[in-house]
Amino acid sequence: MNKESIVKPSQIENISNQDRMILYLWSEVSNKEECKFGDHFLYANKNLNEELPTYIRQSLGRRKDLFDDGKILIHCYWDATEWAKNNCIDRFKPHGKVDDFIRKKVGYVKQNDVHYVSAEKMESLVNSILYGSNRRQTFSPRQEQINAIEKSYNYYLNGGNDFLFNCKMRFGKTLATYWLTKRLGCKKILILTYKPQVDVEWEKYLSDIEGHIDFEGYGFVHALNHSKENPIKLNDDKNTAVFASFQDIIGKNMNGQIKDKFKFLFDTEFDFIAIDEAHFGASTPKALEVINKLKYKYKLMLSGTPLDLLMGGEYNEKNTYTWSYIDEQKNRKLEEIGGWKSDIYRSLAVMNMITYELSDDVIKDADCYDEKEYLTLNKFFHANDKYEFKNAISVELWLDLLCSKDERIYASPFNNNLLANNLNVMYWYLGSVNSCAAMKRMLEKHVFYKKYHIVPAYSDNEGLGKNTIELVKKAIYQNEKVIILSCRKLNTGVTIPELTTVFMLNDCASPEDYWQTVFRCQSPWVERVGNTTIFKKENCFVVDFNPNRALKSVYNYCDILSKKEQSIKESIRETLDVMKVFAYEKNKLINITADNFAKIIEAAINPTESVSIFESDRKSTR
What we know:
The protein is α/β, with parallel strands linked by helices. Helix content is 34%, strand content 20%. The protein contains 22 helices and 23 strands. It has an eight-stranded mixed sheet with strand order 16-17-15-18-21-14-22-23, sandwiched between helices. Helix 20 (568-576) packs across helix 21. It is globular, with a radius of gyration of 27 Å.
């Protein structure tokens, strides 16, 4: 694997125990046709993130104000230590002019260290010299990705053929998979999924310019671009990844037979097959029928929430690599303790879960109980085919109380300091298309909520276009406040950076569905202003109006993902150390500790009643 790396300033690892040769590239914001390329000898024990920007600023001389005013953009820099030692050792020293050595090979020199070429073009040219490729992505795997690759590689090498990457979103499962196939020497790779929108991720790392240098010469074949007249053909001498959705494969031709373009699929002996978003449909009879017909050497399942797969017993400690929210947040906490000198994990916001109950005033006249006398959100928000709520008066009262400015009247997310400025872009997850449509109409007429732009992310998006994610992006670009209403769409496999809060307003009971949905609000939201990286989302929020379901979901998450020989209580304590869980009782927001959480689950009673018990316990010990 490639050891050298090209990285953005916020991503570079701070290695301080050796002298290093750093190459850098910057340009003036106002001039995209020129860039400046140079080198800097970084002494051991110097912090790159601090020293290099300072060095570039000093090099501007009397023009330092350009840097201070954010008019200078540092595009990238390379740690070229090993390359310099191998190719021009006499220049590996202060003022060694490694940049001049490279500059002669690159060309486009205007004067001194200024090049008459765009920064993007210059980046590719330098990459072609350093790595023999003009691809822009050259970073190395993170340690957790290396661990996943090593564990799965050794498992396959010892005779196993079915492995699971149980890795949370933002782990980099796609790249880790490609690195694994390269390590195994696989040439014929098949990627299957029930979520065809993930094709972009799989294709981009193999593309000519934006792709990763480690996969130079790899081919990407998208089944949608092929037909009977244009069949898929694999070159035995070339590494090729074929991408197809289960929906496309399962579909039949006019004669009710398998599509002609897929006949090769079941005749080909694949080296490696990857099932992406495996939690979504990969265990259905039709998907299993496809998988069982395939010929392959290795199989890899990928999912951020494969809870059903783990509970099924087929995957265990031996054939599973797990990277969870807990692992990620532990690393984030270490970065924070270190003063963010490294901020690889900083963009992954801390999860805050807040449980509310529908108040007695809201539900007293509503039809919202099932046959076992349990309150259900689906019944409370039930709507008919005319998009009218059955409990319209109660729902409207709930909306009124929800936006109350006075927490003494009703404590809600909208008057809570913890959520201040985090309710501009929200995702409301309801139980049906009718409920979403009824909610849209009620919100648009409400004096408070009509200041939000409502995105109908359900059914046909109310005729606004088929591309739901583009509708959302456009709404966020054009409006400061947005509520996305959905009963299924956008709750898995999509990234909405500005989304900070999820409202759970249905009876979703599936652990996989629940965690896929709530993790949508944790997507990184990072912006570059000049040479400063701004992390715009340090916290994200889940507001669940079914307290029992919320706490049960956390419990199940802890139980299923608990490590070998780790008790459930230890797993809960570890989780609540990096995920804050709150419950409202009598307009008070109570932080549920690990000890209290365990009591709630063991008692199997209403969490807010339990909170009252805990308050009594605290009073008795004073």
